[in-house]
Amino acid sequence: MLNTSNKLAFLLAAPFKVLFQIWTLWSTLAYNTQSCEWMLVQNPPSIPTLLLAIVVCHFRKIKLVIDWHNFGYSILGLKLGQNHPLVFVAKVYERYLGRIAQYHFAVTNAMCDVLKSDLGIRGTILPLHDRPAPLFIPLSDADQIAFLTRHELTAAEVDNIIASKTRLVVSSTSWTADEDFSVLLDALRSYSESATTDSPHLPELLVIITGKGPLNQHYVEKIRDLESRQELEMVTIKTAWLSFEDYASLLGAADLGVSLHMSSSGVDLPMKVVDMFGAGLPVLGYDNFKAWPELVQENINGKGFSSPAQMSSIMKDIFDPTNETLDTLKEGAVRESKRRWSSEWDPVAGKLFGLTM
């Protein structure tokens, strides 16, 4: 029920979900969990998690570490509007409770700055950048061909993909308001127009969009409308919901990953880009937020855009068979894939928890 764009349904259902979470978390943390020295709490979600974690840590003499991935109030603002009273309350809640914890991890350096300047955090704040799960790794040529041949989404195009007559583009989404897929559709429409007129050397594109969410049907209808008007002659778009294993293989077999994540806070980073780099996949992403350069090295492992026209122009450059742009980005993404969790976790979290020297 909470995964909905309907504000009234959200406001009616939210209190019941919070009450259920309070009971579940309290019984688990206060009674069922063994005593420990540290508690690591990811934020968001903030309500009611932060409050319960602080209370439990106080009574059980546990050191609390908040792992900041974004701000709950900024995400709530996407649903209700940034000026909604509940968004203001959520920000006060997050700011006040955040100050109680003594230790903090943040996914970007930019977020560390906001924690200090905007939320007034005075504890120990350490940047801890996300890294991909072990599942996301570059695939060998043989493994790529095996996946492309096996999976129904790509089997019909496998020969053209191998021959680079068709390029495979992948994006993942939760189909929510923080990702505007009309940007991608406009860019693909422009790409198709160029490929059928002044740039006939451009390859066809197979675009696979994975995920579930409230705006899925809205964009599926938009795609069908563009197809019915023959505005995507050089582009085939498929939507799907994949297992983790198939999604990881798809990233490893693709030519380009697309991120339309528009940061609600300006200082978080999309995990999908981390996963794409883990698979050695170069990224084309929306870059109009402060933390973008902390993840993507422009023209080395990816490129950023801020408009459909710019996105289309970059795609035409990347897929132009007369240049080496895609090869350069691919090499950079493969190098980035070698940065795994151990290189980030051990010197930061491992050191704080006394697990490493």
Automatic annotation (TrEMBL):
It is found in: Endoplasmic reticulum membrane. It is a single-pass membrane protein. Gene3D superfamilies: Glycogen Phosphorylase B (3.40.50.2000). Pathway: Protein modification; protein glycosylation. One of its GO terms (cellular component) is endoplasmic reticulum membrane. GO terms for molecular function: chitobiosyldiphosphodolichol beta-mannosyltransferase activity. SUPFAM superfamilies: UDP-Glycosyltransferase/glycogen phosphorylase. It comes from the Eukaryota. Keywords: Endoplasmic reticulum, Glycosyltransferase, Membrane, Transferase, Transmembrane, Transmembrane helix. Its EC number is 2.4.1.142. It is an enzyme of class 2 (transferase). InterPro entries: ALG1-like. Participates in the formation of the lipid-linked precursor oligosaccharide for N-glycosylation. Involved in assembling the dolichol-pyrophosphate-GlcNAc(2)-Man(5) intermediate on the cytoplasmic surface of the ER. This is Chitobiosyldiphosphodolichol beta-mannosyltransferase. The gene is ALG1.
